[in-house]
Amino acid sequence: MSSIKQNIEQVMAEIAAACEKCGRLENSVQLLAVSKTKPIAAIDEAIAAGQLAFGENYVQEGVDKVQHFADHPQAMQLSWHFIGPIQSNKTRPIAEHFDWVHSVDRLKIARRLSEQRPAQLPPLNILLQVNTSGEASKSGISFDELESLADAIAGLPNLVLRGLMSIPQKAEDYDSQLTAFRALAGAQQKLQAKHPQLDTLSMGMSGDMEAAIAAGSTIVRIGTAIFGARDYA
Ligand SMILES: *Cc1c(COP(=O)(O)O)cnc(C)c1O
To answer: Could you tell me if the CB of 139 is within 6 A of ligand 1?
Structure first.
């Protein structure tokens, strides 16, 4: 069995290879280690291997981990990204503990996050989750709604709109993956006319990282390939 350290090295090598292939700098893509359902010990191991950015999907579990690692010697370098669905009655702990939220898809949630962000903390980094494949079952806003939501969120005081995120429909072939990711990158480019500070595209997971990086991803979200399969029992 390979260790978390070896897994991180493997994923970093894959990121480097994907960057090389499309002529991008290796350090232009950040690895977000998705640690949902995984124990503190696994995150400790990842930090020891040099991993500093972690993604969590469940509010209580994520907050417990952020609080635990507040005492870690490297606490100041760690960043915590909330990437799961958000219920409006759960925004406060997210606003109080996380550095980034990737899954904002409505104004009500953004307003609450801004109101509830503690004044002593820097603004919360926000990505808008876009439903790029138009599946009714998935969260995320449509391309049509994107501009008005971005405009409204840009005016909220305690948030900083950084970019877009998507979880596209699973596609096995590279070309359809690339098409979906290019659509998100194109939407970001359009928004940049009015919102030039947008600099982040959270797209790409284990099975589609290479296409995501070719289309301009700046954050890839990887769980299983680092920490092993999740046990939801
Ligand atoms: C769980 C999750 C991931 C990581 O998925 P793996 O298949 O374990 O790599 C990435 N992004 C989001 C939004 C997730 O919920």
So the answer is: no
